[in-house]
Amino acid sequence: MIEKLNSNQLLAGVAGILALGIFFQAMGLPSFGSKEAALECQGSVRSQQSTSKDDLAKLLQVEIGNSKEAVRKLLKEPYCVLPKTSLRTGTPTEREVYRVASDALEKATSQTYLVVSYESNQYQGYRFWIR
Amino acid sequence: MKAINTRGIASGFAKFGFILLLLPGCSPSQSTENILPEPKLYQEWQLKPGDDIAGAKVVGGLGDISIELNGRSVYAPSDGNAYLDKRGCVYFSGASTPGYLFRLCGLEKPKLGTLSEGDKIATGQMLQFATLLKQADNSWALVEPDKSLLQRTLNPR
């Protein structure tokens, strides 16, 4: 009886190690030291702000070089703002983050953000950020 | 009773071995999915890196900044993705820098796919660095990279 219990415990142990291994494999972590990507919001975060899929569809039609006002009119106030950065000489790049509206299930599994960038008040493009 | 249990353990180990065999198959392959067609450039110059002139190979073009790496490493300037074109140049697309692509030629055995800020991309002898900015007509213009961008690319975190 004691022997049986031990072998069951061993099985449970192996299963546990396996589960952990599969978990980390699924998470795609190359090592324990890797950090998770995070949005480095600067200043206030409008946590209630989210962008509807209809507005998102409209943004995808906006051409590069359009005014920031035109994009802002469409997307309203951003969820948050990323720190200003310099990618090309003499032109600071502004980046604003929008949170894509999602249902409860989507929220539990992932959250999609949209990073929109401007230079000299001109729209430069977007990139999705999925968490 | 005892015999059944040992068989159970044995089959458990067999399954474990089976899953171990499967794991390498699950890891992302870098062979085809990170290959990028060469972006269409806004500037149409006669000679570009990779071309041939009088039997000699062009390694740098107008718009590239050449940096003597001498075996030093280059790092991801932000979170993002690295791709390769058929010429062997690496393209880095930052997760929070829409509209930009950074082209790095001259690297050896680069790490492709999803990278975190500060991750080593590769080492090299002579780096040709170019900053590409997407234009309204979907072409990519060579622009002058800011020094801070190059510093982030050349310094480990």
Sequence-ordered SSE layout with sheet pairings:
The complex is a heterodimer of chains A (131) and B (157).
Chain A: H1 2-27, H2 53-59, H3 68-75, E1 80-88, E2 91-99, H4 104-109, E3 112-119, E4 122-130
Antiparallel strand pairs in A: 1-2, 2-3, 3-4
Chain B: H1 2-26, E1 52-53, E2 56-57, E3 65-68, E4 73-75, E5 80-84, E6 90-94, E7 100-108, E8 113-115, E9 120-134, E10 140-143, H2 147-154
Antiparallel strand pairs in B: 1-2, 3-9, 4-9, 5-6, 5-8, 6-7, 7-9, 9-10
Task: Give a written overview of the molecule.
The complex is a heterodimer of chains A (131) and B (157). Chain A has 4 helices and 4 strands. With 131 residues, chain A is an alpha+beta fold. In chain A, strands 1-2-3-4 form a 4-stranded antiparallel β-sheet, covered by helices on one side. In chain A, a hairpin with a 2-residue loop joins strand 3 and strand 4. The longest helix of chain A is centred in the first third of the chain and has 26 residues. The termini of chain A are far apart. In chain B, 21% of the residues lie in helices and 33% in strands. The N and C termini of chain B lie far apart (58 Å). About 9% of the residues of chain B have low confidence. Classes of the chains: A alpha+beta (131), B alpha+beta (157). Chains A and B meet through helix 1, strand 1, strand 3 and strand 4 of A and helix 1, strand 9 and helix 2 of B.
